[in-house]
Give the backbone structure.
Amino acid sequence: MTKWIILGVGIIAGLIVARVRLVKTTTTDNTKSIINLLTNGIFIGFLAWKGSLFLLEPGLVIKSPMSLLYFTGGTKGLAIAVVIIIVYFLYHIKKRTVTTVHLIRSMLIVVFTTSMIYDLLALFLLSDDSVFHFIKSMGAFFLLLLTLYNKGQQKKEVFHDMKKAALIVGLTGLIVWTVNSNFSFANPQENIKATEVEVGISEGQSAPDFTLKTTSGKEMKLSEFRGKKVILNFWASWCPPCKAEMPHMQEFYVENKESNAALLSVNLTTAEKKSSDVAKFVDEYELTFPVLLDEEGHIGQIYQAYAIPTSYLIDSRGIIRKKIVGPMDKEMMTELIKSVN
């Protein structure tokens, strides 16, 4: 949810910057037309990104139509959306409904501003890849400056703007470096054994062990999977986003069951209306991965699975690396597993 919010903030900021630039350089009618085109293009691209999931994974969407509500087509879907947006803009350029130069410049302003704002906010609101976000935001910042550059500006003004930009880059880099360094020292080093790490559910802590029975009555322990990378998922059969992600989890399990990755699914049985609902759900979605039953509700409480679905990414040493609240698709699970040892 946080990613969507900061992406929305970035897009709005991009449209505002583009509009300010247009007001200074073209007519009112042309400004309105270009802003309308940009807004429509973004909306069409978003729908195409969401809808591309059906094109890329028709089987999953047929099994779980709600996937279209919760998921997108991922990286491939984004590429499809970009192509559709470009075709949309080319159509209007060919019709000469707007000034081509102003439209192209406005498109670049929206893209660079969105990228810059998104990555700057991600530095402080998202805990992953802070250095990568910093590099991207600064790169987008300089590209935005070049796009906004007016040929009529005097060299002194341009030089002054570049000095201010360099100062901003330097100060931001110093802040990010300091925060990232402190965070790194606070986390356990890779060579520390899981037994030496405090047990808990925070990132960097050793995942609390537990033993639960599967739907077939077999006992399973989390520690049995030590040496494998684990996605630990908490869910209930009545939960709409849980229903949406289950076909994705099944495909992920089938594709990775022979690898060094494991999927453990814990049903919050105390939250079910009837215990028999779990077996019906497993049969309906043709799940073949282990489904554990938290019949007393203790494990869900320990892992604070208050909002479902809730998942934990656990590395091969049994250390929690990430908590994910909300549904996951197959691409997201694959990327999570690749991100840890």
User: Anything to note?
Assistant: The CA atoms of residues 140 and 239 lie 40 Å apart. Strands lie at 211-214, 219-221, 229-235, 261-267, 291-293, 310-314, 320-325. The chain has two domains: 2-186, 196-338.
